[in-house]
Design a protein that fits this description.
With about 425 residues, the protein is of the alpha+beta class. It is built from 12 helices and 20 strands. A hairpin with a 4-residue loop joins strand 9 and strand 10.
């Protein structure tokens, strides 16, 4: 957020301060040989944002992996769907390690600080409490400012404070907004995997199982990043397992067909035959996922999954972005992209406010940001949550219905193009 605002000429005369809780550390010029186990699938909309202030070039100079195709299938039937852009001639997304993204953005921030003294970063600074002004009816510059009290005893006054302080956001709690949340009783196991042989490896794979989806995200020609959603007990067992047992369990989860039932298979075959007759060009080819042969010993980790959403994103002189405003299941890879979408939308709203000579902390303008983002975020969260629940059961009637729906969607290119377009845009 700070880098995006600092890149806009309209904010040249504004003081922008980024509070970073972690201490300052010198950026290394060399990447670690091993890949980190936390990665993001960045959409074209997010890449456009990063390009706008120069961070994407830094990321490209380090490492990324393009995704040209995504294949989704399930364990309880033969239903599948695939996504690509223009017959795999364009990139769907880019898989980038979290650390690489942060480094790319931080380098741009440091460059901005040299060119623009109004942009500052304060490391090792933690907010202990906020003092937010009460809402006022008049749109003027005489409203009380927000006061941030730091743990080092200092206080800072601001016309606008933007909270990007995660799912346990102190700013959100201070705003006293209603926060809807629940625990999925699932954990995501992450790891760095290696394959039996090198391939082009530009496909993102996802298989839905009754305990949660398994995703393989490409890193190199012979490596991928794993995000395996499962029960808490199984997640703990996978973390304790030997490398051989872990790999066997993963390959079994990707290839096992024991949960398929004959009735659903026959019904789906009949439906597929009818679709092929009506729309012969509608079928997509099925690729086989890679065979896993290794896992980085120190890469296995797990974290709990849940949903969270703030009913309000803004208050007078305060706005929430990213996980402070919304938290989603990782099955669609939308979490970080929704956060970057917040940055784009809030930047544009604040730019217009500044050009119109308005107070940046005025609630009337901030509500525009809230409205625009909730129109995009809430439907996305509803779909992701619905998919997780729909595919979390092996109840035969539901398996049949979702399999028919998935097969029909795969045969309908306009539907798939709409899904890709919605997931790709930032706002």
């Amino acid at each position: 957020m700070a880098a995006s605002l600092g890149n806009e000429s309209v904010f040249r005369d504004c003081k922008i301060l980024l509070l970073e809780a972690s201490p300052y550390r010198q950026l290394s010029s060399n990447l670690p040989e091993k890949y980190a186990n936390r990665v993001c699938a960045l959409t074209p909309g997010t890449v456009e944002l990063l390009e706008s202030f120069g961070a994407w070039k830094n990321i490209c100079d380090m490492r990324k992996k393009k995704v040209r195709r995504m294949q989704v299938w399930e364990a309880c039937s033969d239903a599948m769907i695939s996504f690509d852009k223009n017959a795999m001639t364009e990139d769907l997304a880019y898989i980038v390690e979290n650390d690489v993204i942060l480094t790319g953005i931080t380098r741009r921030l440091e460059a901005f600080q040299q060119d623009n003294p109004s942009l500052q970063v304060m490391h090792g600074a933690k907010v202990e409490r906020y003092e937010l002004p009460q809402p006022h009816l008049r749109d003027d510059f005489q409203k009380p400012l927000t006061v941030l009290h730091l743990d080092n005893g200092k206080s800072i006054k601001a016309r606008l404070v933007i909270g990007a302080d995660g799912m346990n956001s102190l700013l959100r709690k201070t705003m006293q907004v209603k926060y809807v949340e629940w625990d999925y009783n699932q954990m995501a196991v992450v790891a760095t995997l290696s394959f039996s042989e090198a391939t082009e490896n530009n496909v993102a794979w996802q298989r839905f199982t009754p305990t949660g989806p398994i995703a393989l995200l490409p890193l190199t020609e012979d490596m991928s990043s794993l995000v395996w959603t499962t029960t808490p007990d199984n997640a703990k067992a996978l973390l304790r397992a030997t490398e051989e047992t872990f790999i066997d369990s993963l390959n079994a989860a990707l290839w096992d067909d024991s949960q398929k039932d004959g009735f659903t298979k026959r019904a789906l075959d009949t439906f597929s035959s009818a679709l092929s007759f009506i729309k012969p060009e509608g079928s997509t080819f099925r690729q086989l996922p890679p065979h896993i042969v290794g896992v980085d010993k120190k890469s296995r980790a797990a974290f709990p999954l849940g949903l969270g959403h703030a009913v309000d994103y803004v208050a007078t002189r305060a706005a929430l972005i990213g996980d402070a405003a919304h938290r989603v299941h990782p099955l669609a890879g939308q979490g970080v992209n929704l956060g970057f979408g917040d940055v784009v939308c809030l930047r544009d709203v604040l730019s217009r406010s500044r050009q119109d000579g308005c107070d940046l902390g005025d609630l009337a303008h901030l509500l525009e940001y809230e409205t625009l983002r909730q129109r995009h975020v809430i439907p996305t969260m509803a779909v992701v949550d619905g998919l997780n629940r729909l595919y979390g059961t092996s109840f035969s009637p539901l398996v049949l219905l979702r399999s028919l729906g998935l097969r029909a969607s795969d045969a309908c290119k306009p539907i798939k193009d709409y899904i890709v377009a919605h997931g790709s845009k930032a706002t």
